[in-house]
Write a structure and sequence with these properties.
By secondary structure, the chain is of the alpha+beta class. The chain is built from nine helices and ten strands. It folds into two domains: 90 residues; 143 residues, no CATH class. The chain is globular and about 55 Å long.
């Protein structure tokens, strides 16, 4: 059963989709993305979230949540026009975190940096950028525990993914040479990607049926088969080729 949203607390001021702060009937607070995020974004969030967990990335707990129509009716239109009622994606809010910044790069464990880099390469997610000039890393950092959290996979399965730009702007692009030019690392990661890919079918099966459709008879901009074909690249010898 989806978590029922019982209260709308406000809206984020940052992020492309500016998710809503909502309280669920389980007592937790969630960042919720609803109709303001297109169907492909919701599908990518859910499937890639499940794959990220299977790949052992530190992703905040997330749920399919349900926004009741009654809750929308009580709110003012400008508050909820991009939320809407029905099934949505909810990422549990983490306490004591801030947006990751450039000065913290050296504090992240080497293996975790490379894991995130390879995972984003696999799912074609170019939306984790950070250089000395700025960017949008979509990472959260707990200064006290030195723990990193990986968020926002909504731009994955990018049909216009540019491998060269990715290798220049990804937050952990400095680690590319240590993976893409190392045969032992490549084999290790392809084994891990294969293991994580085992979670794909279950993830697809649990995507809400209505997310696969924009409207009656109009499919979303990504299908399960298209996502599968993109992800199966890890077994190809050309997977590590940058250009």
């Amino acid at each position: 059963m989806p978590v029922q949203i019982v209260e709308i607390l406000g809206r984020a001021t940052q992020g492309m989709t500016r998710p809503f702060h909502c309280r669920g009937d389980d007592g937790y607070t969630y960042f919720v993305k609803g109709c303001g995020a297109d169907r492909k974004s919701l599908i990518a969030e859910y499937i890639c979230g499940k794959l990220a967990l299977a790949f052992d990335l530190p992703v905040p707990n997330f749920e399919i949540v349900e926004v009741p129509n009654e809750l929308i009716e009580w709110a003012t239109p400008d508050q909820v026009k991009d939320l809407g009622c029905g099934l949505a994606f909810g990422s549990r809010k983490l306490p004591h975190v801030q947006e990751f910044n450039y000065s913290q790069l050296s504090l992240v464990d080497t293996r975790l940096r490379r894991d995130i880099l390879v995972f984003d390469w696999w799912i074609k997610n170019a939306d984790r950028t950070l250089t000395a000039l700025g960017g949008n890393p979509n990472l959260l950092w707990n200064q006290e525990t030195k723990a990193l959290a990986v968020i926002d996979h909504n731009q994955a399965f990018d049909g216009e993914f540019n491998s060269v730009t990715f290798c220049q702007t990804h937050v952990f692009h400095a680690d590319i040479v240590h993976v893409f030019d190392d045969l032992v690392e490549q084999i290790n990661y392809q084994d891990r990607l294969s293991a994580a890919f085992a979670a794909f079918d279950s993830a697809c099966d649990n995507v809400p049926h209505e997310w696969w459709w924009v409207d009656d008879g109009v499919p979303a901009a990504i299908s399960c088969n298209e996502a599968r074909a993109l992800l199966e690249r890890f077994s190809d010898n050309q997977f590590w080729r940058i250009a």
